Amino acid sequence: MEAAGHWDSIYTSRSTDEMSWTQESPTISVELIGPRHDRTSIIDVGAGVSTLADHLLDTGWTRIVLLDLSTEALQAVCCRLADRCAEIELITGAVLDFSTDRPLDVWHDRAVFHFLHDEDRSRYVATAARSVQRGGHLVMATFANDGPQQCSGLPTMRYSADELGSIFSPAFKLESSLRRIHVTPWGSEQPFTWVVLRRI
Hints:
Blueprint: H1 2-13, H2 27-33, E1 41-45, H3 52-58, E2 63-68, H4 71-81, E3 88-92, E4 104-110, H5 119-131, E5 132-143, E6 150-151, E7 154-155, H6 161-168, E8 172-183, E9 189-199
Parallel strand pairs: 1-2, 1-4, 2-3, 4-5
Antiparallel strand pairs: 5-9, 6-7, 8-9
């Protein structure tokens, strides 16, 4: 509840151009998720107010799950999507508490995992492994090794692609990686490590 209140406060007290993670378009996420083809289900962990859901709806994903600690963020997304909000599943809660009896094709996480420490990282990996069907993919971004040591007042971990591959092994295998610089709305540069991991 304390963590939820922290993020609710951020989403109610700041405009999007005051949030470091704001991006005009989820270009890299879209690129690494790739074409939908015969895939149907995807979760966006720590969805916030990202416009990724808009793109997923436009490209025909039929089961879209948005998970975030902040009720305020998910309500903002629903207001933006208007009638289309009925086509997605909104879950307010912690990623470590997520469960599903319908395995997902894709798990997407842009900057949640790097807030986790110690045993919570292992719990996250186990949660993702239970939730993604074999052959499915996990698309993730974390701060790179030379990235920020904190975000929104919270300490963060920093990773290389090889480190992420090792942490998620043997349930997932590293397929590809990218290093990209995210430019905040006020012009600061944040190095990110992006990985695509396949569920074994």
